[in-house]
Amino acid sequence: MAHLPEPVSKRPGVCAVHSIDHYTLTVPDLAQARDFYEAFGLRVACGEQAGRPCLDLYTHGHPQAWASLVQAPGPQRLQYLSLGLFAEDEAAFARRLDERRLHAAPHPLARDAGGWWLQAPDGLHLQLRVADKVSPSVKAPPSRVAVAPGQGAAPARSRAGRVRPRRLSHLLLFTPDVGRARGFYTGVLGLRLSDHAGDGIAFLHGAHGSDHHLIALARSSAPGLHHSSWEVGSIHELGLGAEGMRQAGHVDGWGLGRHVLGSNYFHYVRDPWGGWVEYSFDMDHIPADLDWPAADHAPEDAFYVWGPALPPDFVTHPEAATSTAR
């Protein structure tokens, strides 16, 4: 049997971040956050960050702590985003940041203060650190359940179990100026444009192989987080997650549907603070050795091919009213 070539996990000669290492949110109630994210299917662990109690979010069976939630009064707020890079690119990134005078002090809630710190044009704190590549170098296969002849494929409702997301797929960030932010994330961090819809939204992937978008940027009056997206292995798992969240009392959502840009099937659930968390299945993958043909799309294609009507407040920014207090 012929062996397939190993996937390329680093594009030669390209200095770029390769993954979202983690992000940190402040939320007003850690107990409420634990209930929500455990119902969503994540593993929630108590920890400490910058001397304050926090919750770390993991996917089951994966060692990566994808996010940390720290309690603070007021609305949910994205505090900083940490991005992973290869050790061999450290020197090149250091020179790039020195030349552009982009260094900033570590965020006071940093999980660790190492690496390099800078701010995006909209003020979001970013950390660049050497870390393992956790963005996918190949497209993940779907989950499959073997079914014997004469048996039904669907499980009994009482034995359906709970969905367990595999990993963090991407973040959609609000920003006041999508074009300026896009120039920063591509020119400084080395991400690449996948697709966009005018100056309203842009989708960016990792040059070293990632999903169709690792980070997306949507226009709003202030910076912040619109949603985090978590990969599941099938449409069945996506629906199972949606049903589990409804049973847990989180009935406000959007889905089942399919996106145009990225092609993934989705179901969004509103979190307790007005933001969104997404189950995602079967997103387009962009390997490190492929140049994706980015295009400008019609505004309606930024949302979906099919699905239920878009909630009227889906693009409302829950942080915007108080974002000046960041």
How would you describe the overall organization of this protein?
There is one protein chain. The chain has helices at 30-40, 90-100, 178-187, 235-247; strands at 19-27, 43-49, 52-58, 65-71, 77-85, 116-119, 125-130, 167-175, 192-197, 201-205, 210-211, 215-219, 224-231, 253-258, 265-270, 276-281, 285-286. The strands form three sheets. The chain has an eight-stranded mixed sheet, with helices on one face. The protein has a seven-stranded mixed sheet with strand order 2-3-4-1-5-7-6. The chain has a two-stranded antiparallel sheet with strand order 11-17. It contains four helices and 17 strands. With 326 residues, the chain is an alpha+beta fold. It has one domain (19-135, 165-315): 2,3-Dihydroxybiphenyl 1,2-Dioxygenase, domain 1, CATH 3.10.180. The model has no long low-confidence stretch (mean pLDDT 93). The chain is globular and about 65 Å long.
What is the number of helical segments per DSSP (H or I, 4+ residues)? Answer: 4
How does the helix and strand content classify structurally? alpha+beta
Number of E-type strands: 17
When the domains are counted, the total is 1
Beta-strand content estimate = 25-35%
Which residues form runs of ≥5 with pLDDT under 50?
none
What coarse outline follows from CA principal-axis ratios?
Answer: globular
Gyration radius over CA: 19 Å
Average pLDDT, all residues? 93
Quote the distance from N terminus to C terminus.
Answer: 57 Å
Question: H/E order of the elements?
Answer: EHEEEEHEEEHEEEEEHEEEE
CATH architecture descriptor: Roll
In helices, the fraction of residues equals 10-25%
The biggest sheet amounts to: 8 strands, mixed
Main β-sheet, spatial strand arrangement: 9-10-12-8-13-16-15-14
CATH class: Alpha Beta
**CATH topological fold name:** 2,3-Dihydroxybiphenyl 1,2-Dioxygenase, domain 1
The CATH superfamily label reads: 2,3-Dihydroxybiphenyl 1,2-Dioxygenase, domain 1
